[in-house]
Amino acid sequence: MSGSKLEGPSAPVVRRDPYEVLAVTRDSSDQEIKTAYRKLALKYHPDKNANNPEASELFKEVAYSYSILSDPEKRRQYDMAGFEALEAEGMDMEIDLSNLGTVNTMFAALFSKLGVPIKTTISANVLEEALNGTVTVRPLPIGTSVSGKVEKQNAHFFGVTISDEQAEAGIVVRVTSAAQSKFKLLYFEHDVSGGYGLALQEDSEKAGKVTSAGMYFLHFQVYRMDSTVNALAMAKDPEAAFFKRLEGLQPCEVSQLNAGTHIFAVYGLSCFYFC
């Protein structure tokens, strides 16, 4: 399929067939496309290619191609009549990594809608080692806890195995730092290549005398109360302070897990308590 020009500052100069860019076939599954994307995005990651401007363009081309093939409707339109079909449907063909779903969490911070590079949130080395399956995963039975320290731009990985009954009841995973360190709680899904791909992440927030991050795998919505109301306000007018906190309720991201072993990690500079 012949290449064509792209519009906008965030797009590659010439469009190549997205299947060719990702080195997949037209009958590749969603998971195979996702795996190919992750590997190429890490290969051309700006953190790993600081002195190679060509890698940055290839990274954007990979992300652009994935934005088509990861969207069922865009993929169908492209398969029918190429880029022209997408343009005829009036679809937005800019690279907007924030719209690519949880698989793109680790890359969404790299470029704004105009393709402006900003600091990444998670080390490319950590993501690559996880995807290659070379990380050490420590078992963490349900109902137990562990404490430790993570060095800067490193991660500790834990495998949590749940039964059918526990999956049905739901679980909550929480990490706290009494030292009030900043960290990230990460959830990795199993990849067809045998490694682990980042699916969810939660940044730590201050909660009283600790920093904390949690993930909720339940069958009902969970809300986070406003923690900015200080103790002095609570002491002066507990009722008013309580209702002020209620006004600041924010829904937490809630997912569900199937029975099996699930991979979590604590990332960043942190003395943590994982339960």
From TrEMBL:
Pfam families the UniProt entry points to: DnaJ (PF00226)
SMART domains: DnaJ
J domain boundaries: 17-82
Cellular component GO terms held in the UniProt record: membrane
Primary location group: membrane
PANTHER family, sorted: DNAJ DOMAIN (PROKARYOTIC HEAT SHOCK PROTEIN), J DOMAIN-CONTAINING PROTEIN
Protein name per the record: Chaperone protein dnaJ 15
Gene: LOC102582042
